[in-house]
Amino acid sequence: MRPGQHRQADRAAKPAARLKVGFVLARSFTLSAFALFVDTLRLASDEQDRSGRVLADWQVIGSTRHLITASCGVQVAPTSDFVDPSRFDYIVVVGGLLTVENPVDQETIAFLNQADAKKVPLIGVCTGTFILAAAGLMKRHESCVSWLHYKEFRERFPDLKVRSDRLFNLDRQRGSCAGGSSSADMAALLVRKYISRDAERNALEVLQIERARAAADVQPRRPLYDDYDDARVKAAMITMEQFVDGSMSIEKLASTVGLSRRQLERIFIDKTGMSPAKAYSRVRMERAKSILVQSKAPLIEIALDVGFENASQFTRTFKRTFGQTPSQHRAAASRAH
């Protein structure tokens, strides 16, 4: 058999990709969200780092082949015109700057509606969920967006369910993702579902990602002080986060913002509905919760990090704050993986 015939035989013997994804890129899309998603597929599709489309395949699809400019200025060319959406297991819409008036054209909206009619699952990445919502495609589905965009989503789509407490969400025929590094987490879930855990592990190892986070994992989000508009409250809570070990006394905390303890107490009760001590405890517990799901550190180590003398005292405070013990919270996050 000639060398060319060998190659043809190899191609004929190659199994069909188990996971096929079509990407729709919005004008001024977020490059990192797209790159992390597609690179997770690329690395899961072949062994080591050979980039072969063996177990997964993907296309950037669009109404034209014109270059699409990301928010950082890098341009990407579509690799396919709009085809029958049922060729794909998922259509992923990658959003970007919300200041862009028409992030996609009407042909794209029509294509997304066609995909919906054919029961092809749609995923909004970063602000791609805004595009799906504006097209009427998030009704009866819960959206997950970044905390940074939560308020604007609520304002634009007051009748839709939305959350910003988790990294991503898969709700029947819809997926939504906060963007950033969580794009790799969502892609890893699809890889695990359609290909294998080994493929997922290979992709994450090459990307230098220790583990794929689950949908239920909490977003690294804005600090609690962003919920309040009083400058003195914000300044005090920033200081709390800087001294998350609990070493800052309330009296000293008050002096850092030019107030007496009594004045600080009154302002906190008025502006936040809780005392400075309770707010400080909440800040410390939120930090502990983040450490629990992002590391394998023992409870005593986490307890000491957030200012407790022993694990039992830390456990009681954590349960009082979140309704479950630190071990229960970590186990729940582990099961979600």
Automatic annotation (TrEMBL):
Question: What PANTHER family does this protein map onto?
Answer: ARAC-FAMILY TRANSCRIPTIONAL REGULATOR, HTH-TYPE TRANSCRIPTIONAL REGULATOR RV1931C
Taxonomic lineage is: Bacteria, Pseudomonadati, Pseudomonadota, Alphaproteobacteria, Hyphomicrobiales
Q: Which UniProt keywords apply?
A: DNA-binding, Membrane, Transcription, Transcription regulation, Transmembrane, Transmembrane helix
Membrane-crossing residues?
21-38
Q: What domain of life? A: Bacteria
Q: Which organism is it from?
A: Rhizobium changzhiense
Q: Name any one Pfam family assigned in the record.
A: DJ-1_PfpI
Residues annotated as domain HTH araC/xylS-type: 234-332
User: In its UniProt entry, what is this protein called?
Assistant: GlxA family transcriptional regulator
